[in-house]
Design goal:
Layout lengths: L1 H5 L1 H41 L11 H25 L25 H18 L11 E2 L14 E2 L18 H50 L23
Antiparallel strand pairs: 1-2
Helix pairs in contact: 2-5, 3-4, 4-5
Amino acid sequence: MKNMRSNPTFRRILQFGGIAAGVIMIAFGAASIYLGFAGRSTIGESLGNEFIVGSDDMNQSAIGQEINTIIRPSQENIAAERKKAGVEPIEFTPVVAPKCDVAGEEIDNGTDARCFAEYLRLHALRSTSGLTYSQIGRYVAKDDAPPEETDFAGGTESGAYAELNPKTSQPLDNPDRDLWVTATALSSALNLAYTAEQVSLFGIVVGFALLLTGIGLVILAVEALPPRKGGDAGGEKPTDVEAAPAQ
């Protein structure tokens, strides 16, 4: 092994191999950085083209008031009505004010998109009395429908106790349920934009790491493995022998 390390051809192979590996890492790093920035640009452009602007209540103070005066009281009222009717209680979704603020702001990046989605969910809960999709009745309940056949918020799963659509004579679809579907679809798209932006950011960070590592590898290959000089090329340095004095 010692002889291989001292062999100039073997050392040259190691040097070129290190340089090649470094160049490849630099190329991958540059590509990762480019794709990361391109992805972030595409996300911002796509969001900007939707012209989404946060409503005036999309701040902690305003939404907190709506939570305390509308959503939670609605959930508490439904819980009380279910208990009064002798119906099994249900678990309500947690309702917490977001820690971000996008009131009056244009949504043109992933972070703001995620924040807007959080507020959008609260707006949907405000309209559905604090119920989620699985808890909302499919149809609009009749005024005289038995409480146990309703969701205690104007909806029912039973066609027998549903209002009829005057045009089709079929059970009337619950608009709260349709609203929840629409809000969830938009929220999912906004959260996906946030996820994509974070992936792009991760790609940029990894790209810089690869770039710097590649540069370091090239420098190491060039400086740490120089070609051996003259007498070193064939192995150990020969020992000087003193000339014998003439007789």
